[in-house]
Amino acid sequence: MTAAPGTPLIHRLGRRHLLGAAAAATLASVGVMRAALARATPPGAPDEGSFDEMYRGRRIQGDPVLGERGAGPSAWRVTVDGRQLGLMRRADGSYLTMVDHYGSYESPLAAARGAVDELGVTARLSGHTH
């Protein structure tokens, strides 16, 4: 069935077309919102809470240290078997440890696990940070 020339567009489109356009617009807006939220929460953001776990026989603990404004963690205090692990944030948002300056980790927990992997079974942290 074809509409006569000059008929308004809304009358020429079928319900299926309108429903499809509405669904596409909804899905597109959901995708845009998810991408915006992902960009708004960088690694190490405040939603990452403290951790305390046993990993390969070592106890690793970490707590965010809030900055002056309280907007989020400006640093982390991370320990392995009670000894402080030197941890630094890179410009790209990843972390490195004093145990392995060349490793790049997405979170303080991943960095602590990487330090335990590097230390092995018998080595211990000195407890000194740079």
Overview of the structural elements:
Keywords: Copper, Signal. The strands form 2 sheets. This protein has a 4-stranded antiparallel beta sheet with strand order 1-2-3-4, with helices on one face. A two-stranded antiparallel sheet has the order 5-6. The chain is α+β, with helices and mostly antiparallel strands and 130 residues long. The chain folds into 2 domains: 32 residues; 69 residues, protein ne1242 fold (2-Layer Sandwich), CATH 3.30.1880. The protein is built from 3 helices and 6 strands.
Which helices and strands appear, and what pairs or packs with what?
Blueprint: H1 9-12, H2 15-40, E1 51-55, E2 58-66, E3 73-80, E4 83-85, E5 87-89, E6 95-97, H3 108-119
Antiparallel strand pairs: 1-2, 2-3, 3-4, 5-6
Encode the helix/strand succession as letters: HHEEEEEEH
Total strand count, please?
6
Q: Structural class from helices and strands?
A: alpha+beta
> What is the C-alpha radius of gyration, as a whole number of Å?
26 Å
**Stretches where pLDDT falls below 50 for ≥5 residues?**
none
* Percent range of helical residues: 25-40%
| CATH domain topology of the largest domain | protein ne1242 fold
Which oligomeric state applies? Answer: single chain
Determine the number of helices (DSSP H or I, runs of at least 4 residues). 3
Count up the domains: 2
CATH class of the largest domain: Alpha Beta
Largest sheet: 4 strands, antiparallel
Terminal CA distance reads 78 Å
Supply the CATH architecture of the largest domain. 2-Layer Sandwich
| Percent range for β-strand residues | 15-25%
Q: Provide the spatial order of strands within the biggest beta sheet.
A: 1-2-3-4
Rounded mean pLDDT is: 78
User: What is the overall shape?
Assistant: rod-shaped
CATH homologous superfamily designation of the largest domain: protein ne1242 domain like
